[in-house]
Amino acid sequence: MRSYAVSSLLLAHHCLALSQYLSSLPTEFQSSHAKWAWVSYESPAVAVIPGSFNRTALQAPHEGDASDPIVREAFSQLNETDFVAYDQRFFHLIGPDATIDHVQELAYQTHEAPCFDQATGNLFFAEWGPPGGDNGTHDWQYLLNTRNNSLQKIKTDPPTYNAHGCVIYDSQMYVVTDGYEDVETGQLVRIDPNTWRHETILNNYHGQPFLGFNDLDIDSDGNFWLTDSKSAFGRDLIEFSNPTNPTIYFVNSTTMRPRPVHITTGNTNGIAVSRSQADPSVHTVYLPDTGFSEFKPVSRKNPLGDRALFAYDAAEGGVLKNARFLNNPIAWFYDGIRASKNGYLFAGAGDGVDVIDPVDGLTLGTIRVGGGENVAVSVAFGKNELWIVGRGGVWHVNGVKEELARDW
């Protein structure tokens, strides 16, 4: 009897210690269909980890090592979750009815350029770079009918090679590409989703080829913001070396004149533009630097490389002002990034999609894609849902409390 009592006491102590690291969920989330965890620095067990512990910038929190068995178990439980909250605001934003489903399991290949057409229910996205395609070159894209979960490969007319980013604006799809080999340089193209007719609308800066576009966003005035990256050369999609350092271009949609507005010795990747709720003429631009990911002469992830997220005020003509450091990822680096209707930032960050407050820069929580080899790369919004594409396929997050899709 005494042995049983001692065992029960130890078990109760273990559960109490574990619950101190993983805070109790709000009542309405305890019966959620999704699996939630709450990690709060208000808990002393989170603020001060006993024993030895370690985690690199290349590892998600659940991959961290700790000598204390209770902490190790807490990390393990994080890997069983769908949503991890770091701030109470994440609960209010996502809500208890949200679910995440892995709707398409694809090769562990980078998938990019998601565009969700709310009118048709179609999700356009691309497979990017080697080892897929013809030596890494893709002249086709995926189209997922989200209403019946059927997937097909499509080709535009003429074909769009190596699509890397996509945004829908005024019922048209705008796609940026890497170009391919020595045949075609990076381009900004317009695609009619009804006919799949492709039209190139920009392919040079005063005769200089672009490095290879990675992503884009469009502001509420219809102007383009393009990230020109060294990733295409780094993955041997193009044969010429970089004519300049990675650059952000602002393109006036009326004149189509490109203007460099930011340059980095790291790398450009995703970009997001949001509009002030108080003053619709004011835009904020968010830029993550991904110098963390190096290509040549050796392909590697450098934990000392740039991976910070900065915010800028966009002045007339695309001039970026009032630069401010906003966030450094908890893990990995920010790939595709999008701003929701109310300005929250959703960024692919390896293990999942981080949701970031645009004012204080805090990571409010993470929408996880299951761990293992799965990697969240980029997102596209519906009204109360989002689609995540990345290594491992496509995930659908449904029943989100916050309205996500922008009104432009």
Describe it.
It is a single chain. The protein has 408 residues and is mostly beta strands. The protein folds into 2 domains: 2-81, no CATH class; 88-398, TolB, C-terminal domain (Neuraminidase, 6 Propeller). It is built from 5 helices and 30 strands. The strands form 8 sheets. The protein has a 6-stranded mixed sheet, with helices on one face. A hairpin with a 5-residue loop joins strand 24 and strand 25. 44% of the residues are buried. Mean pLDDT is 93; it is low at 4-14.
The number of helices is: 5
Shape-level CATH architecture of the largest domain: 6 Propeller
Q: What fraction of the residues are assigned to beta strands by DSSP?
A: 35-45%
**Overall body shape:** globular
Low-confidence stretches: 4-14
Biggest β-sheet: strands ordered side by side in the sheet: 1-4-27-26-25-24
CATH superfamily of the largest domain: TolB, C-terminal domain
InterPro entries: 6-blade_b-propeller_TolB-like, Oryzine_lactonohydrolase, SGL
Keywords: Signal
Domain SMP-30/Gluconolactonase/LRE-like region: 164-386
Signal peptide: 1-17
What are the salient characteristics of this protein?
four-stranded antiparallel sheet; mainly beta; six-stranded mixed sheet; signal; 2 domains; Calcium-dependent phosphotriesterase; 6-blade_b-propeller_TolB-like; Oryzine_lactonohydrolase; 5 helices; 30 strands
Summarize the structure.
By secondary structure, the chain is mainly beta.
